[in-house]
Design goal:
Chain A: This is 1,2-phenylacetyl-CoA epoxidase subunit PaaD. Chain A: Pfam families: FeS_assembly_P, Zn_ribbon_PaaD. Chain A: It comes from Winogradskyella poriferorum. The complex is a heterodimer of chains A (about 170) and B (about 250). In chain A, about 25% of the residues lie in helices and about 25% in strands. Chain A has about 170 residues and is α/β, with parallel strands linked by helices. Chain A has two domains: about 5-90, GMP Synthetase, Chain A, domain 3 (2-Layer Sandwich); about 105-160, N-terminal domain of TfIIb (Single Sheet), CATH 2.20.25. A four-stranded mixed β-sheet of chain A has the order 6-9-8-7. The longest helix of chain A is centred in the middle third of the chain and has 15 residues, at about 60-70. Chain A is elongated and about 55 Å long. In chain A, about 40% of the residues are buried. Chain B is an all-alpha fold and about 250 residues long. Chain B has one domain (about 5-245): Ferritin. Chain B is built from ten helices and no strands. Chain B is globular and about 55 Å long. The chains are: A alpha/beta (about 170), B mainly alpha (about 250). At the A-B interface, loops of A face α2 and α6 of B.
Amino acid sequence: MTTTEEHINPKLVSILESISDPEIPVLSIMDMGVVRSAVIENDIVKIEITPTYSGCPAMDVIGDDIKRAMQKAGYKAEVDLILHPAWTTDWITPRGRKALEDYGIAAPLDAEADKSVLLEGKQLVKCPQCGSKNTKMVSQFGSTACKAQFQCEDCQEPFDYFKCLK
Amino acid sequence: MKNKNLYNYILGIADNSLILGQRLGELCGHGPSLETDIACTNMSLDLLGQVRSYYQYAAKIAGDGRTEDDIAMLRKEREYFNVLLVEQPNTDFGYTMARQFLFDVYHFLMLTELEKSTDLNLSAIAKKSIKEVSYHKRFSSDWIKRLGDGTEESHSRIQTAINDLWTYTDELFHQTEADKAMVAEGVGVDVTKLKDAYYEEVNAVLEEATLSVPESKYFQKGGKQGIHTEHMGYLLADLQYMQRTYPNMEW
């Protein structure tokens, strides 16, 4: 896991934390782990973000949101999209995982758990509504590129699972 | 253009994903079920996202003021270098999954090698894409097995699709001039070396799906040189319609 803290100017943290992922509004872009660096050079804020998925349409919006928030705080900002190192679900912070669960999206487990579902192995994904592990995958692809569709066999509620990406 | 080989090499990779992404996108709202509809459009979105990274890089190399959109939307049929496999029509869900599976196995193997490229841009795109493509491959392999080992009807349909599309698989392993030049520089992937692993993996899935491996040794080629099947013109008409009708439009 790569930590980014040392590349983020402490003055900018609270501004960045106020910007949320447009598709999962409970999650800030900091908790999502997409902000890779944020520095101030000659009064210009330079920010690097990385996409969760290549085709994620939220990235353009996030870039615009950052520029707007920085402008409000009195900074001029430049936003760069970087691809390397590639984003992984490990970069979602513990606070972000909790926010996902509270919002009704099961947080990513590990690659083995994702595979286990497909191979009809042990059931590991917990229903965010009732907490039961008696769940089944409906489809590997869900409402956004980063999610899979699940259903709880106990409370019958359908829910999204944030799939593991490593 | 100084780096013509690199430019053409990138287009060769990216055009496959653009055209397959367009085909999958045609299923938006037309998939056989809600889940498969969403899955196909998700895969389309992944591919188009990857394509943007490639074309942005290609536009930088071209350095003639063209943007990623110009490269995607404003070339003529003969200037697209995708393999014939990816432009084949959706026909039925069996064809859609057979085409996807036959491409995904190749795509995954190719990206695994491209990760090692000495070109850091290409290596970064490959590292990002391979995570997404592993989901695509899992999805399409799964459907090959479900359809093959399903009912008599699904078995016969997916076997027909595999038999028909088989003729386009060999082209995946043909080298272009740009390929050869880029392999020599350590930038490109030597696709000829992927062939054995490809057929081994494809055959294993077909066997598990109770399908027979086609024996035909007759293969089609031409896409990599810009000579396409009759389906390509219709696909491009659809893809390019807005840009041709309202030049330079943005949304």
